[in-house]
Amino acid sequence: MHPDHPTRRRTLRTLMAATMTMACALHGVALAQDAYPNRSTTVMVGFSAGGAVDLVARQLGQALGKQFEQPYVIENRAGATGTIAAEAVARAKPDGYTLLLGTQSTMVVAPSMYPNLRFDPIKDFVPVSLVASVPLVLVVHPSLPLHTVQDVIEYAKSKKGELTYASSGLGGPQHVSMELFNAMAGVKMVHIPYKGEANAITDLLGNQVPLMFSNLPTLLPHIRSGKLRAIAVSSLQRAPSAPEIPTVAESGLKGFEALTWFGLYAPAGTPQNVVSRLEQGVKQALTDAELRARMAEQGATLEGRDSAAFRQYMQAESVKWGDLIKKSGIKPE
Question: What radius of gyration do the chain's Cα atoms show?
């Protein structure tokens, strides 16, 4: 057919029009993604309002909202160690407008304890940024003659598996931290799970249970008042809010680390440029003076690890706690 034949010309015009339409559509999608966020974003939290995870989410959301000039709304869907909220986000549209503020309990401990979860933390999420972490502190009732990690180890050995410890519940950071201590120290203490951290602390203050790990900011007032005695913190470095308390690692259990951490996640399939925008947004948000002051009040360490570094950290945490749960024989109730 001759190049100037009318049919050939019509075909070429049709192809050109289709190509331009597709290019415009793709350009429109790119513009929409580049404009993120152009409306309200929901950040889901798997724990009750007023708790540590909720407070971090609200402070981060406020800082992101100030930066992006769009609201970041916190939605609490408490229950099942945060996995109800995580499943909802895993099934959400991957456009950056439904996010999760997840913790180690939800994203690395629960999957090892509950193999039938309906989401995979590695496959179903994009880790955006590790936002912050909080150390735990090992405390004892002051009636006990224990002042150091080695004192606790020797005392536990002398009790021959009868020494008890409290936690906020099965699989929580207080529980797995003490099981890590047991494994590394070669001792066996008996777990007494409570329905929440407050109940456990109440019995510890009343000398109904002798010791526990719990979040440092929660216990610091009781330590300062002398109602509890601090033995060591669970971070690798001493906590800025209590530099006088040594670490477990420097006290004889080299490499010991157990943190409560908070990370921002998006559903798998979220466009990379949206993830990058969120990642940079968190990084910038963590420079906000008001957010930094509030986090410091809570004893939190600001992390700000980017997506790639957070993914590596999460994978390492999954292996670490998964192995511990298997070896310790921790089972769901």
Answer: 25
Measuring CA to CA, which residue among 219, 218, 217, 214 is closest to residue 234?
A: 214
pTM of the model: 0.83
The C-alpha atoms of residue 330 and residue 225 are separated, in whole angstroms, by 34
When the pLDDT of each residue in the chain is averaged and rounded to a whole number, the result is 90
Q: What domains, with CATH codes, occur in the chain?
A: 41-133+259-328 (3.40.190.150), 135-233 (3.40.190.10)
The string of DSSP letters for 109-145 reads IHHHH-TT-SS-TTTSEEEEEEEEEEEEEEEE-TTS-
Question: 274-316 pLDDT, tens per residue?
Answer: 999 999 999 999 998 888 988 888 888 899 999 999 999 999 9
Please state, in angstroms and rounded to a whole number, the distance separating the CA atoms of residues 32 and 60.
24
Instruction: Give the closest residue to 52 by CA, choosing from 89, 103, 121.
Output: 103
Quick one: how far is CA 243 from the chain centroid? 24
Q: Say if CB 234 and CB 248 are below 8 A apart.
A: yes
Q: How far is CA 32 from CA 36, 45, 126, in A?
A: 7, 26, 20
Distance CA 271, CA 258 (A): 32
**Residue 187 vs residue 1, higher pLDDT:** 187
* Distance of alpha carbon 324 from alpha carbon 316, whole angstroms: 12
Nearest to 117 by CA among 76, 80, 171, 172: 80
From residue 255, alpha-carbon distances to 91, 95, 141, 185, 292 in Å are 37, 39, 26, 12, 28
Lowest mean pLDDT: which of 26-40, 193-207, 270-284, 296-310? 26-40
Taking CA atoms, 155 is separated from 113, 245, 280, in Å, by 30, 20, 48
CA separation, residue 220 to residues 122, 261, 299 (Å):
34, 18, 9
Q: What would the pLDDT profile of 85-120 be if each residue is shown by its tens digit?
A: 999 999 999 999 999 999 999 999 999 888 889 999
Sole residue written with tokens 């769009």 = 70
